[in-house]
User: Fold these one by one.
Assistant:
Number 1:
Amino acid sequence: MPIITKNKPIYNQSFSGVFGEFGRGGGAQIFFVQTAISPRDLDKIQLVGDIEGSEKWEVRDLFQRDVDIERVSGSLVPYLLDENSIKFFNPLTLTFIPPVVAEDNSFAGHIPVMDPYSATIEDYSYSCIENKGFYRFRYVDQHVENGIVEWNDSGTKLVAIDGQHRLQALKDILNDPSGRAKIDFDRWRIPVVIFGVRSIDDQITQNQRTLDVIRRTFVYINTEAKAPSQTRQILLNDSLANEIGTQEFVNYFHANDSSAKPDLNILPLLIFNWRGAHKDSRTDHMPGTLKTIEEIRDWLEHYVLG
């Protein structure tokens, strides 16, 4: 008598979240699910350097392979474990990499087409985008807030392409029982964005790999994001004495300007370039300004506080 076995599900891992997609460009389109995961789900995510064969990738593809362990252990982990620090960071950016092709650097050879389709799953009508056998993004029709991303972890790996140092720090805390208990780590919810890419014009994307798109996405995220100006960094820093002193110094003049009866013997705030406007990577000195915030901070550092 033959043994009857149940069909195994194609996908054995999943996250629920909000589905979204961007406009089309360059013959391709990126779609994603944004969600928050629990610390125990961190083991489902890998670092680029953990991918077998990634050390054989071409130099131009090593967009983020090595993690600075000293930075993780000396800065990020102490910050996350500090009970006096308010914790916040941007979502980790994740995507899927098929391990079966990682070694030969072909990365599936091309960007998959993945035409959207409709399917009824567990009595709900879903809109789906699927790289069959690897992963699938879906959401309840007309309800993108009911999105799901699912994958087969034996056929593909979920990898962080941005936020690797944060991910390593979180993994280190996950493996530190005393640290976990100290900050109630098991109750945390970690923001992540999981994205995929599909070809919408094979003529344009035929000579591109998924890895090319991932690399460009990583580079764009990390070069287009602008750090606050030096002035803003000084005025927003609550941990360094010279920065705090600068804030108090400038606020003295600001408080006078804001007073209903300002003291006319006190200099007006406008002589300090406290807004820190920049033009062509240089401080844009507004009419009437005599001193920059950087100069005030340097004065405190070299002549007052040290």
Number 2:
Amino acid sequence: MKLSFTKKLALSTTFLSALITTGISAHTLWINMSDYTPAYHPNRGAVTHLYMGWGHDYPVDGFINADDFTDVSLISPSGKKEALTKEALTLRKDGYGETKLTLSEEGLYLIAITRRTALNTTCRENGKEIAIKGPKTGHNDIVSSVYSQQFAKSVFLSGNSFTGNISRPIGHTLEIVPLTNPFALENNRSGRMKVKVLYKGKPLAFQKLQAMYEGYSQNDESSAYVSTNREGVAEIRIDHWGIWVIKTKFEVTPSDELKDKVNTERYFASLTFFVP
């Protein structure tokens, strides 16, 4: 049976979307804020709450332990970096990690989180695939062996002043750097959010990113798919107001230090922000 051009195009588009959707299929880390625009008072400052996102279903999915984080840092509009302790990530009765943030400055803030590294190996034993939390060392018939790490950032605004440099890299191995102030986008139906992707501090060319606004999907489907240019810069068309997440994944051949332990190095990064 011959298919019409329209049906062929529809099938091709569906197949391509399926391929793209699976681009970031593993559990990923992101940051949720209870209020991305808390009111600022000269004497009392501003208050918002940080909630951790983990899994597939944005904005809320699985639980994650505070012990999984090696660094949680708050960067103020003046550039001051404050390290938050693991104890600050309190565990609510519903199981979600929460941190109350008291903001002493007016302007643009960044929150940055690094998750501890993980080594996961899958091998075959007696015809069955066995999952191992550790390196491939000492195992045979390796299916996969991955060293991975995850990073997350969020931009939020205390008060109404756009003071602060949110485009300053903070040093994550894989990092999405916002080049546009999302709170300054005047028209969310035609605005462009520019970001730069860095790997070990250097621009990552032709890197794929996916983005979605809260409410678009309960799964891994995204509302926008883009790639960086030669300078590591990508533009995302903002076609909806509200909270957005951008995610990316990067894989490389293991370094000399890791090549005897794993077959792949894999890094994840996310950025959340609010569009008025």
